[in-house]
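Notes from the 1:1 (GR / supervisor)

We went over the backlog. Supervisor wanted to see one worked example end to end before approving the batch request, so GR pasted a single chain during the call. The sequence is below; no edits were made to it. Supervisor asked that the structure be written out right there so they could see what the output format looks like.
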Amino acid sequence: MTANAGNRLDDAPLSRFHKKLALYSSGGPFLDGYVLSVIGVAMVQISPQLRLSDSAEGLIGASALIGIFLGAFAGGWLTDRFGRQLLYTIDLIAIIVCSVAQFWATDPVWLFVLRLLIGMAVGADYPIATSLLAEFTPRRFRGPLLGGLVVMWFVGAAVAYVVGEIMLSSLGDDAWRWMLASATLPATIIVLLRHGTPESPRWLANKGRTEEAEAVLKQVYGPDVTIADLPDETEERENVDLKAILRSGYGGRMLYISVFWTCSIVPLFAIYAFGPKILDALQLEGGLANIGEAMITVMFLIGCVVALLGVNRMGRRPLVIHSFLWSGLALLLLGIFPDAPSGVIMTLFALYAVIIGGTQILQWIYPNELFPTEVRGSAVGLASSASRIGAAVGTYLVPMALTGWGVGGTMLAAAAISLLGAVVSVLWAPETRGMALHEAAALTPRPAQDRPSGRPASV
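Structure output shown during the call:
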């Protein structure tokens, strides 16, 4: 196969199919943001009604994150083994069933288990949906579309706070039950929209199912596209399996992705799980705390949109470094001045929310670009699972940290994590801007003069 093989796909225009696939794939991140954020509002009623201790409150807040840790790796392995299409729907059906069951939860253990299962289903969707989108999307649009999935996380979070506040003020003592069950509606809509999505032709070709792969290519790209237009990834690197993720160049990539992802979500998820409680500690009380959290969510959304507009122009490496550095400084100021006026507090939170957008969109771009087709789902799942260990621990410790360290100490700890992400990114962050998917995943990078940035393609 020639060196330009696959360019017809990598350089294809953005079609209606690509836009629909990006929208449908964003359903998982939307539900993730929704279920992880609505618990923050629901906890206002759950804690007194179920008489939760700080420890139990932390466990329920972290339960979905623990589930994501379990589900992301399992989903990644399953999607590499059985394909993207089948699991693309099954995981959302599980979310629907468990969300409905939360309405009848009567004790902390039952609620913890259900939210754990929801987290597993959400985590499984990450590698499934992102692998499918990455393998269909032309290189010019891959970064923005993959990063756009994270925008939907914040849309889901914003909707959760609005819905939660409305239910809290209108549905009485059972409002928390309706909040937790409300994820059923968007999950059902997404399942219906995803029906009929084709399998990834790259995955089919990798499994030797060339006739099916060619049929999908013709369906999506036109009748003159054939299997010969798929790049031969084996020419770019040695054959790999899951074990190769943990050794050679892929081991270095996996280490960076796991650390960077962890540092980007630990402070963010802690803020979302207990946002109203944190803002209350910063003298923003009651409904104002929930409204403040919704406003911050809008700023997160703005930050992600700004990052999407700049990711191809600025490049992956500069974006992740600056995002970590300046957002960490905003958290540092919150930690040093926790008694500042409300306007200053909200301004610093808003700055953090806008600036951290760069690291958020790269959570889906980097892993999907740095690993080959046969292990892409497993790699994304493994990185997502590894990051959720830290996120779950951090979320679990937030109530106790607020009690023991105060809000200032808690914010200082969050700042330290973000600044660690900046240091690690300076040392290890790769640049994959402008590369075809098989080039970015190859262990041997293109010569520096052939790349847009001149930065190394691997850690």
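Supervisor's comment: The chain has one domain: 7-450.
Batch request approved.
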